[in-house]
Amino acid sequence: MSANIKIIYGVSGEGSGHAIRSREVIRYLINEGHEVQVVTYDRGKDLLGEEFSVTEVFGLHFDYQHNAIRYLSTIWRNLIRAPEAVKSLELAANLFQTTRPDVVCTDFEPVTALTALRFGVPIISIGNIHHVLFRGSRVPWRYRHDWLVSKAVVRLIVPRADHYVVTTLASEPVKKSHVHIVPPIIRPSILGARPHRGEHILVYDSFKNERLPVILQKTNQLYRIYGHGAIGRQGNLDFRAFSEQGFLDDLLGCRAIIGTGGFTLISESLVLKKPYLAIPIAGQFEQIDNALELERLGYGKMLRVAEIDGIAEFLRNLDVFEERLEAYHHPGNDSAMALIESLVDELAGVKVIH
């Protein structure tokens, strides 16, 4: 181990998954004796700011409507904030010149990635998003346009990295020496948890799919719903305000989960052996990719849109999914952390700060 390596760690603040994963990696790197400066925004700042030194920057935001991504409005929404982006790039340049980092790690955060390229600092990309670029299986024709758009967006946000540590739901071969496939990085509260089988279905609906509650009311099942905005009981729907502990308790005690195609919650559902119904954001191939893999593995089901027949089929097959999940084994985070540490050591001697 090379002690006291200086690392700038960029974390996307769009949603919580990037920050939840990065928190575990940052803790590990600090415990290994390295200096880590976090660069993030929005949810990343909320989740990481109390524990780590954080520099807040401009963050890219995607625009969603009716459970679908809107690329034109996303582009416009970020273009009108261009002056903020320029200031953040200047702030990052000053941070690099002051800190003189040996390595940059990025979990889909563009300001640190672009500044690292400018100053010649080696980059390690960590996260599931680059599975879009390096996936081994063929993309179904139905999703090929979404895949091509997603590849372009991913390359725009992180144009290049020296190494890619790609978290995936299942191991798969890769032919590129700088691409490393690792299991999902899971928070200790999940790895060490003792789940039990309750009667409620946990629903995480942070994108407020308007169709979903209407459909769920038609089924004979109790749902505990987070992220939809409402609070209170409406028949078989129990809308709950978000709290980390409350959500964790309902996650550990649910019978199954309904959510988007977000990687973090799907990964945690596998560790806890909870069947998962994924309704990915339309047009967002990263989520579609996760949902396709979930269904291929047999641990849950994917729906393109929320509809009663698909939800009813998922509920009828919970016993089947639970039986398949018994075979799932997560090896822990040690191998992924050791790989990241070895890559940090390898790259720490090649920086070129101008």
Automatic annotation (TrEMBL):
It comes from the Bacteria. Gene3D superfamilies: Glycogen Phosphorylase B. Pfam families: Glyco_trans_1_3. Transmembrane segments: none annotated. GO terms for molecular function: glycosyltransferase activity. This is Glycosyl transferase family 28 C-terminal domain-containing protein. It comes from Candidatus Uhrbacteria bacterium RIFCSPLOWO2_01_FULL_47_25.
